[in-house]
């Protein structure tokens, strides 16, 4: 699957997670030298370092960038960048599933 297509799938997953009240923390996903997927919490990992240290064939970083979700991908000298508005989160995400009062 192409670099862009995987980035689009990761964008959909990130938007769904954000709409459900998921963490604001970004993450890094990559395909290792054996073809398996690995994910790391955070986006402080340099894609070139993952190629060198873990044999990454392709790397994607997903992060919140202001009011947007951004997915950047790198593979074999190619790069892609997707950016889309983050879904609005309602007050339900702040309140949670806990009942705050009871009617008598």
Helix-strand layout with pairing:
Elements: H1 3-19, E1 27-31, E2 37-41, H2 47-54, E3 58-65, E4 68-75, E5 78-85, H3 92-95
Walk me through what this model shows:
The chain is α+β, with helices and mostly antiparallel strands and 104 residues long. 28% of the residues lie in helices and 33% in strands. It is built from three helices and five strands. A five-stranded antiparallel sheet has the order 2-1-3-4-5, sandwiched between helices. Strand 1 (27-31) and strand 2 (37-41) form a beta hairpin. The termini are far apart. The model has no long low-confidence stretch (mean pLDDT 84).
For the secondary structure, the number of strands is 5
Instruction: Give the structural class.
Output: alpha+beta
What is the helix fraction of residues, given as a range? Answer: 25-40%
What percent of residues are in strands?
Answer: 25-35%
What's the pLDDT, averaged over the residues? 84
Mind describing the biggest β-sheet? 5 strands, antiparallel
The number of helical runs is 3
Which strands sit side by side, in order, in the main sheet? 2-1-3-4-5
Poorly predicted spans: none
Cα-based radius of gyration, to the nearest Å: 17 Å
Query: Overall 3D geometry?
Result: elongated
- Order of secondary-structure elements: HEEHEEEH
Distance between the termini: 58 Å
């Amino acid at each position: 699957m192409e670099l862009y297509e995987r980035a689009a799938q990761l964008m959909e997953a990130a938007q769904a997670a954000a709409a459900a009240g998921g963490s604001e923390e970004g993450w890094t996903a990559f395909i290792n030298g054996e073809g398996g997927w690995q994910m790391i919490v955070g986006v402080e990992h340099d894609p070139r370092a993952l190629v060198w240290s873990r044999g990454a064939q392709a790397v994607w970083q997903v992060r919140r960038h202001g009011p947007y979700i951004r997915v950047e991908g790198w593979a074999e000298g190619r790069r892609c960048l997707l950016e889309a508005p983050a879904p609005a989160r309602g007050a339900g995400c702040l309140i949670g599933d806990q009942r705050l009062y009871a009617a008598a």
